[in-house]
Structure formats: structure tokens, C-alpha cells
Write a structure and sequence with these properties.
Blueprint (H helix, E strand, L loop, with lengths): L8 H45 L2 H40 L4 H12 L3 H6 L3 H8 L1
């Protein structure tokens, strides 16, 4: 017996919803997998060189140590410094030591003459009104 196309519509809707859910579920993995592929591509010559010199297990361990020393350790240090500076800025803002509105206006006063600000209509008076 031949089934008409209208009987498959709920199945197609269900398939579309499951597919959309699967894509949403996997979306958070795309970025880390991308960077893992980039790092693997960058360090593949190091791995090839070490595999010629020693056994594959030792070569893999050495490549992981090289990646940790060259990529992960500096990024961790920079992240830690960034966190410490952010906390220091937050504490100084809470203590009233930094007046951010005056700093922003001073910076914008330096760049007010640029083409971007002249065409957009943003001026120091406009920003003072918005920050007050």
C-alpha cells in the first residue's frame, strides 16, 4: 500500500526538531574543537620530528609538554594578570578612587576631532549629558 505524503509530516517535523536540538547541543563544542585542530596542525611537525627520534608514546608526552609550555602556560599567566588587574580596577571604582566618567570624557576629548565622531554627531556635551 502506498502512503500519501501528508502522513509523513509529523515525522518530518519531529526529525527537524531533533536535528535542531542536536545542533544546539553540539554548538558549544565547535569552538574548542576548532582550536584543538589548529593547535594539532601547528605542532604536527614537532610530533613528526620526535616520532623519528623516539617511540610514539614518549613523543606524544613530549608534544603535550611543549604545547603546555608554549600555549597553555602563557595564556594562563596572561589570564591571571588580566583577572588581577580587573579586580584592582573594580576595587578602585568601588572605593571612588577612579572617576571613570572624567577619564572617558578626557579620552573622547582627544579623539573628538576624528572623522567618526564628526559624522556621528557625538560630542563631549552629548556624552556628559548621557553620563550624568
Amino acid at each position: 500500500m502506498k502512503q500519501d505524503a501528508s502522513g509523513n509530516i509529523p515525522s518530518y517535523i519531529f526529525l527537524g526538531l531533533v536535528t535542531a536540538g542536536f545542533i544546539v547541543l553540539l554548538f558549544s563544542f565547535f569552538f574548542p574543537v576548532f582550536w584543538a585542530a589548529v593547535i594539532a596542525g601547528i605542532f604536527q611537525p614537532v610530533d613528526r620530528y620526535l616520532r623519528r627520534r623516539c617511540n610514539p608514546g614518549l613523543a606524544a608526552a613530549l608534544v603535550i609538554l611543549v604545547i603546555a609550555a608554549v600555549v597553555i602556560l602563557p595564556l594562563g599567566l596572561i589570564g591571571g594578570l588580566l583577572l588581577a588587574e580587573s579586580i584592582a580596577i573594580l576595587k578602585s571604582l568601588e572605593g571612588g578612587q577612579i572617576q571613570y566618567d572624567k577619564n572617558i570624557l578626557a579620552f573622547l576629548g582627544m579623539v573628538e576631532e576624528t572623522l567618526l565622531f564628526s559624522k556621528s554627531g557625538i560630542s563631549e556635551a552629548f556624552l556628559q549629558d548621557r553620563l550624568s
